[in-house]
Amino acid sequence: MNAFLLHWTFAIPEIWVLIMACVVLLADLYLGERLRDVAPVLTVLTLLGAAVLTFFELGQSGTTFAGLLVLDPFTNVAELFSYLAVLMVVLYSRRYLMDRGIYRGEIYVLLLFALLGVMVMVSGANLLSIYLGLELLALSQYALVAFNRDSLVATEAGLKYFVLGALASGLLLYGMSLLYGLTGTLEVRHIAAALVNVTSSNLILVFALVFIVAGIAFKLGAAPFHMWLPDVYQGAPTVVTTFLASAPKIGAFALIIRLLVDGGYGMLESWQQIFIALTLVSLVVGNLIAIAQQNLKRMLAYSTVGHVGFLSLGIVAGTEAGFASAFFYTIVYVLMSLAGFGMILLLTRAGFEADRIDDFKGLSQRKPWYAFLMLIIMFSMAGVPPTVGFYAKLAVFQAVIAAGYVWLAVIGVLLAVIGAFYYLRVVKVMYFDAPEPESGPIVRDDLASATLSINSLALLVLGIVPGPLMAFCFYAMQGVI
Amino acid sequence: MWVFDWLNAFPPLLVYLIIPLAPLAGSLVAGFGGWKLQEQAHWAPLTGVAVSFYLALAVLFQTLHGVDFYGNIYIWAVLGHLQVPIGFDVDSLTALMLVVVTFVSLCVHLYTIGYMHGDPGYARFFSYISLFTFSMIMLVMSNNFLQLFFGWEAVGLVSYLLIGFWFQRESANVAALKAFIVNRVGDFGFLIGIAAIYHYCGSLDYRTVFAMVPHLVGQTVEIIPGHPWNVLTWIALLLFIGAMGKSAQVPLHVWLPESMEGPTPISALIHAATMVTAGIFMVARMSPIYEQSATALTVILLIGSITALFMGLIGLVQNDIKRIIAYSTLSQLGYMTAALGASAFSAAIFHLMTHAFFKALLFLAAGSVIHAMANEQDIRKMGGLRKAMPITYITFLIGGLALSGIPPFAGFFSKDLIIEAVGISTLPGAGWAEFILVAGAFVTALYTFRMFFMVFHGKPRMDPYIRDHLHESPWVITVPLIALAIPAVYAGWAYIGPVGLGHFLDSSLVIAPQFNTIGEIAAHWQGAGVFLVHGLEAWPFWLAVAGIVCAAYFYAWNTGLPEWLSRILSPAAWLLESKYGFDTFNNTVLVRGVIQFGRLFWHVGDEKLIDGLMVNGTAFGIGKLALSWRKVQTGYIYHYAFAMIIGLILFMTYFVIWKG
To answer: Which residues in chain A are contacts of B626 at CB distance < 8 A?
Structure first.
């Protein structure tokens, strides 16, 4: 067998998703007119199949395709959660798309390609493959944002995202090229080995890191590279926003692990400084500006910036526990965002987006169960025990304190308190305000409602028994350092 | 005994666990199912308490055969080095308390069915009294200070809930609050005492702490610099402050008379028989600590004696039947406390037991009277009830004789034992204490029989409609009366040997040789009969008889005399009627002072500083900040890109300067 294809089975989940994405495309092309459910059903099957395939790979590790892709515990765990995230998006999406007459197969194809991008980023072991995955994800996302092409806001958001995204990719690529110039290799582990011989005061190397971190920060949505986030989150169709806040964040986190930890751990001290700055700015900007928002999608966008600040705390810690807690935070963030946007999806109907905070007024009278679920979601985002959001914050604080950055933890806690304000405002509006007359009836949607119930209750259950998920995250971080 | 043999098939821990859990289950059923069960809500609590009583008897028989238990069930929490277990200490003292508590509770449960019939809060009431039983059991079964504190607070909470049971009445709410707040004062001392124990012993487990006590002898602490204090005295006194609150000793007694705002069954259960004796129980349980401090014992002896006489005196001028009994309870608690001070722990527990029976009996009989009188509590409006209510009459008489210390009723033995022990005690002030305790015997008989004659004898003074409808109470009320009258008669001579003289309680109590008053009495012990005959020649008995005679003369034959007397002795009457001014002092100095102080903090500290400047000020500032920062988000791509580039350049500049 060709050396290039050695251990090609390690990439089976990626290959499966690629093939199935093409299959969905073709199936929708030929059957889509008559069987409108064919694309989503096939997508779900693809995800389940990928999960099974990934599951069989658990415990194996190694590289394949001549070191382009790597299989390790992190790959497995991150991929599994990415499938889960996309699966939820698919389950939430159906009625929303139907109501707006855009229930077409392309969106699922794009979702699958985006997922493939995430998977390649997660398993990338070479600057090229990582960049390839990133662009695959990014291009799919641009198309997804502008998917509702008749909507002016959506296309505007898509264009903004595209231009800024291109800029960020450029920054990242420039950083990578500097890195290549310094070390003469594209393979991450060789870079890591080469960096041992470069002194940490090498300014070019530091610049390379600055550019790479800037690119990552853009993808994550860390301030001051976050400006696209509110506009895109608000402008994109809510289904797409739901997706943007889910699997791509795992991909962005993978960039940190692959580029900075696998590759640049020797330069920890340098990029730690950048991350401290990113953390501080994100915490302040995210939590403060969110207070002034009237639109829930926009508020959640700023809340994302705040959450990125919190998860960066774990990265600043720079220890295995720190990365594990940051990963835990990422996964929890994904679950919370899915639930939060899922709730908006559930309340929408044709011509009504339910994305203003005022639209949630008196929800407890109109639909007590939804109000309760939203209560859990908001409590979890605010970090109120016993929800999992509390545990996620606790874990990153513990990690960052253990690493000696007590002052950073103190600032984090203070901003968490400020942040609690706007989450609790939603709760207040739901339980203490009278419903607005124009809010109208809530359309019945069993599939999305069941998904949301499971999703939200999971936040509560995981908060009560966080142990297994935490163990999973520690397993994923095995041997990264 | 054979009726308990089948229990041997079960693990003992299970039996111990069921004792508190059965009433808890009953309480939960009545509490949560009450809206559905309505008038049937009593079954679950009644069953729960009956099971508890049965098992408590079984446990008592076990301890009689020397089977004790001491251990933890599970660790509830670990805080640093402090382990907080839930555990039981089942020895003779606990077993005795268990039987007393569950027996009185069972009687009260049964009685309540008749007494509270038709009350809208019927189920709630049952839920509370079962919850109380659970809490009290947890208190007496505890093997560590924290669980003791849990039970301590839980009974206090239920007491609060029950005093304010008729929450539509303002006076009930005020009384409930008063009880709660006064107990806070006591609990404050108690909690500091527990903290001190943890500080010095490093544990809250009874046995570990008691084992540490000998090492603490002679250790001092300087609370005020330059004045070393004995650590154990401090601990003992702090714990006793808790007991003063719960067992209503002067000056923390003010809540107990007011607690009569609650329904009569709980006055019997909580404010006479069980909860108020928790302080007595606690001090007896902590005997290894108290025996190391003569100072603490002296304080206890004096406070107990003062309470015993002076609270009894107030009882003379009260006209509310329940309040008279309440002051009598205060006075009797004073006797018990005095016994504790004289190191006669077993005598205190013995009096606690007999008192529980006859005082619960008196309260329930009073309740029966109140019931028949259509909720009239003023004894001036009663009279001549003897014929209409024979069972209540007889049982009340038994209770009254027992309370007055007339042989052969139960109170005689326990009270005489206390007086004798105090007489032997060598503590400073013991002679004076003995004198006022003896004088108290006269007062006790006087107020008891003043009430008795005014209620049951003489001319009927109620309005004619009520007089025509007087009737004996239904069986659910009279059966508990009879059930309680039996031990009120015989418990004295039957148990003075084992309980009063402490053979049975020996294993639970520690008595230092220099304070061993009970041991001295036991050394000359010739049996209950001799004790009785001996008692007939002593002052307390004749004073009690004199009290009864005086009461009969004043209130049955020459009813004009008391009025004349009170005119002659008007300053004394005024002093008693104003209850020595404790309430006035509390209201004008403490309450108003605290309110003024609170108002100062409220208006200046809270409203202006914390709320105005800090909380709202910060919130306002942050809101402003948010609104202004929001403007950065212009919507123009080039602004966004600009921000990214600026961020990038700032990072690079930082590194250039940092590295350079």
So the answer is: 288-292
- Asked, for residue A153, whether it belongs to a domain, the answer is no
What pLDDT does residue B660 have?
55
| Residue A80: inside a domain | no
Contacts of B214 (CB under 8 A, 6+ apart): B292
When CB atoms are compared, the residue of B644, B654, B659 closest to A224 is B644
Residue A200 pLDDT grade (very low, low, confident, very high; cuts 50, 70, 90): low
Total number of domains in chain A: 1
CA angle (A160, A166, A169) in 5-degree steps: 135
Among candidate residues A97, A318, A308, A117, the one with its CA nearest the CA of residue A221: A308
Check A228 against B643: CB less than 8 A apart.
no
Is residue A247 included in any domain, yes or no? no
Joined together, the tokens standing for residue B509 give 């109590």
Q: Which domain holds residue A339?
A: 266-481
Do the chains contact at B647 and A224, CB–CB below 8 Å? yes
Contacts of A454 (CB under 8 A, 6+ apart): none
**C-alpha–C-alpha distance, residues B512 and B145, integer Å:** 23
B659/A201 touch (CB, cutoff 8 Å), yes or no: yes
Which pLDDT belongs to residue A352? 85
Q: How many CB atoms lie within 10 A of CB B426?
A: 11
Residue A295 CB burial class (10 angstroms; 0-12, 13-18, ≥19) = middle
- Residues B370 and B378: their CA atoms lie apart, in Å, by 9
pLDDT at A395 over 70: yes
User: Measured between alpha carbons, how far is residue B27 from residues A244, B40, B43, B52, B166 in Å?
Assistant: 53, 13, 10, 13, 19
Q: How far is CA A156 from the centre of its chain?
A: 22
User: Which distant-in-sequence residues (6+ apart) come within 8 Å of B541 by Cβ?
Assistant: B405, B406, B407, B412, B416, B441, B535
pLDDT digits (tens, 9 = 90+) for B203-230: 899 999 999 998 888 888 877 787 788 8
To test the contact with chain A by mutation, choose from B640, B650, B657 the residue with the greatest count of A C-beta atoms within 10 A, namely: B640
Domain-embedded: residue A28? no
Q: What is the 3-state secondary structure (H, E, C) of B439-478?
A: HHHHHHHHHHHHHHHHHHCCCCCCCHHHHHCCCCCCHHHH
- In sequence order, what E strands does B478-627 have? none
Alpha helices in B116-230 (DSSP H): 122-141, 145-163, 170-201, 206-216
The candidate with the shortest Cα–Cα distance to A193, out of A293, A280, A264, is: A264
Q: Is the pLDDT of residue B659 over 70?
A: no
Question: What pLDDT, on a 0 to 100 scale, did the predictor assign at position B625?
Answer: 84
ipTM: 0.87
Chain segment A86-96, per-residue pLDDT in tens: 999 999 999 99
Bridge partners (DSSP) listed for residue B85: B75
The verdict on a CB contact (< 8 Å) between B635 and A231 is yes
